[in-house]
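Reviewer comment 2.1 asked that we show a complete input and output for one of the modelled complexes. We chose the 5-O-phosphono-beta-D-ribofuranosylamine case, as it is the one discussed in the main text.
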Amino acid sequence: MPFNIAVFASGRGSNFEAIIKEKHKKNYIYNVSVLVTDNPQARAINIAKENKIPFEVIEKKEGMKRIDHENEISKALSKYSVELIVLAGYMRILSSEFVNKWKFKIINIHPSLLPAFGGKGMFLQNIHKSVIERGCKVSGCTVHYVTEDIDNGPIIYQKVVKVLPNDTPDILEKRILKKEHIALPYVINEIANNRVKIINGLAYIIKDDIQ
Ligand code: GRF
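Response of the prediction step:
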């Protein structure tokens, strides 16, 4: 049985693209079954088309309840035998019901070294701006399990970059994205190989052999 993943993305989709590319480059064993997006304009849709990956556009129309939106997502997912949901720039907060239904089967990539610069309001360039304004000397990215508590689920893997004196949020974002593009596919493959374990509420990669 292939290890089927669904990638949720709302915009640019550079992590989605990396998940596809790294799989081929490194012979990762997961299978990218479907892209789920809430944004009909997402660049991620073009990437899905170019790579012949099915996609589901599920908009949250005005006045629609979150539960109804998520029910539509669940219905769409039921077609793909998904083992893992990967949030890669998905700009919505999932309900506790949804998260608990997929307990330890949803991961997220966040562009800071959590628990620093996480939580409400901490997204995209806000994060990098705050990191620079705080005078941090390092930043990076975190891959973690998604729990009800936003950006607070067990940390699986992190990669660090330097923050340099002349960095702008844009420059720092690009440096971190390069690391994200390696870290996220790597973690997905480790999960697919059953090498990620939760022990006493913390996540561990049992054999960490990334270069
Ligand atoms: C990334 O920085 C990711 O860490 C964050 O959202 C951004 C998505 O970028 N969660 P992309 O759509 O994958 O290019």
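Helices lie at 14-26, 43-50, 66-77, 96-101, 124-133, 169-192. We note this here for comparison with the apo prediction described in Section 3.2.
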